[in-house]
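dumping these here so i dont lose them again. two proteins, back to back, each one seq then structure tokens. dont judge the mess
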Amino acid sequence: MEKIRITKEELQRPGPFLKGIMELAFDESCIMDKNGYILHCSDSSPLIWNRPNEESIGMHISELDSASPYPQLLETGEAVLGKIHIINGMSCITHMIPLFDYKDEIIGAFGVIIFRGTEKIKKLMRDNSFDFDSKSKDLYNQLAKAESYYTLADFIGNSPAVQDMIIFAKKVAVKNYPVLIRGETGCGKEIISNGIHAESHLKAKAPFIKINCTAIPSNLLESELFGYEKGAFSGAYSTKLGKFEVAGTGTILLDEIGSLDSALQSKLLRVLEEKEFERVGGNTLIPLRARIIACTNSSLEKKMQEGEFREDLYYRLSIAEIIIPPLRARREDIPLLINHFITKDALDLRCTPDAMELLQEYNWPGNVRQLRNFVAKMDLLERKVITEKDVRQTLNINDSHERESIRESASIDRKVSSYEKKLIEDALLQNDLNISRTAKALNISRNTLYARIRRLNIHLEKRIDQ
């Protein structure tokens, strides 16, 4: 990018051409001096900053936008283009461009908001039939990842297990503790994590950054999370902000946390304990402002026993542990879920009583995702009425013997839950309802015990001493 050169006089008193660009070319713009103080604002600025220009002029940019890239621009001398900032609850696409004098020294910066909100630019990018270059793809991915699409109300279920989980998730949301969400594949971990983020930011939008720990090689994941300094390694031609920084005061979701290698586990533990981190190749401590939510469908207890997952990291992450019940543990929610999928997609479908009974008896190894796909397949096959035969053929339930096996399996699940509930209740009573002693007796952590008490809907007359 060519350097923009102006005189100090032009910086202080912009001419008609620069003023015209400020007013007409962008949703909002401002000019700062080399120290980051606002010199000029466009007429549209009050719509962004919620204050008159007379107040904004003379303020430091960090007072208006705490996540401003101006320090990075001063350090590198390079423009920071196409970045997403949450300003007064609105996602904005911004440019920050350095201004040089004729001695090639930075004397200020030109900050612009090219889009207020993200829907307009996402629609433009989706509707135009051209191949995205890498920068366009990166920007679209940022737009997609910076927003939360679900609330806790989107988790469908009236069963006691679900209602207790939602109540606990709402309590967790208003605290800034790390959260560990556990559950089988397809049970709704992403909805709960999105919902906690949305519940945490009711008054103002904030970024929701998702990272799949299994999708990125370990040697790249560190720089993706922590960012890196210019020259930190071969190919690091400029400073890059990591996801911990990009998340700002929002939420970062670490999906499949159980797949992190031991080195990254140690570094994540330090971030959680110290609330700060360093970019790769850097020595400046950067405060962590985002909440960390971790998800897993693997057995962390087994991984800890095998030395694959740090116990101290588990205890740090599981301050608030949410265990999502599998669909087979809340079969009474299946009719509600089916009706939800039919209504949401305006499908012309209904179930016969025999079909619904069989659907409630099935074990659903793929949980809610599998049930949703089943409904979609019925629509694809242009069924108007879902019959027992449709259920048998689609789910490969071949005969009455197999149906009886499903019923036996469902019965076993209920018996296991009942046995687990009785075991915990007895242990609690034997230890005078003391959580710490009970957890030690059962050889599980306090957080896991709390989670199982909620999942199994255990209520004892005497208040549990926390």
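---- next one ----
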Amino acid sequence: MTKSEKPTRKSSKQQGTAKSGTDSKSTKTPRSSKQSVRTRKPSVAKQTSAPRDSFSPVPGEVDLYLFGEGRHELIYEKLGAHVLNHEGVKGVSFAVWAPNAERVSVVGNFNEWDGTRHPLHHLGDSGVWETFIPKLKSGELYKYEIKSAGLPTFLKADPYASYAETPPATSSIVYESKYRFRDSKWMKKRAGREHFRQPLSIYEVHFGSWRRHVEENNRSFSYREMAEALAEYVLRTGFTHVEFLPLKEHPYGPSWGYQVSNYYAPSARYGTPDDLRYLIDYLHQRGIGVIMDWVPAHFPKDAFALARFDGSALYEHLDPRRGEHPDWGTYIFNYGRNEVRNFLLANALYWFREFHFDGLRVDAVASMLYLDYSRKDGEWLPNKFGERENLEAISLLKELNEVVHRDCPGVMMIAEESTAWPQVSHPVYAGGLGFDFKWNMGWMHDTL
């Protein structure tokens, strides 16, 4: 099949709206990834598959336009897998950005991992592929089967998946949150908080090693098990906030979470997404703020994830002088591509809105600011002015901080920045990058 033969479907004029959070008791969480392997018989999905054009696309024309402009702040509600009632039928919508693919299908236990059963439909020139599968439910394992010109068919995890299998397994999992937060008092108070005018003492935690069950094969605590133990320790020692090293899914445990494969999925090592929501909710009810390390500077080369996603350098630069990090052996995001910027901007908002985090500590900002970061002469490309500043990354950071502070008042954006770059924590309107704080790298290394 050539690109001109891609199955297309005219998109409907639908636009997503933001979810409104309400306070009530949490309900039973969806089954875990371990349980999700025991899916329904594969024939069920085949029997309930609808003709290709029976349903209009879930991403509408406005969604696709905003995504192409890099300004769809709720794009995670349209791309990925979502359990919903669509045109009167309960099922799961799937949507993925893969503009260079010739064919995309969704595969899983529900269709015996057969790429001919549920092909996705190409929505014009947006690069987005989508489908809706009736009667499919939360808990199903899935991946995207992609065929690109000149390459054999390959499988990819969903970049917008909200849940994934516990590593080393790599499938995405359809997930429907049932959690309702009970931290409205904290959230209301946070909205008017000026952190630089109040005491701030942060306790940094690597979740997997902070406390373990020695008698149970030395396993880590789960999100729910951690809640009371961590709250008691933090209150006893006088900290105001905890800061978790990255809790997004990552394939390599010893990376401490800094090589992220699933930007929208909390690590399944410690429980479900709703279990993480419970942990944050509990800490808030005990008067403790919660920060997480966030990694927009680079991502790993694992074949199942973002790297060469549709057979091309999609999320990263093709030229290694811009697209590869020499120290960490990872890819660098293409900050000049609208859809990639949207992926990152919406991701930051996702953790604030969907999980109620109170701050993001942005990792490796220095590596984003300079094109020659950790590179020798001849190993980097200058910007259009012949200088070493990464103009696209600088623009992204400024936009990120403005959008976050506009939409999520009272949260903190913290830069791990180790150079003499001026005005890191000054407002964007005053010529700064817009962060609230700059991490004191010298004190951390020299004192701690």
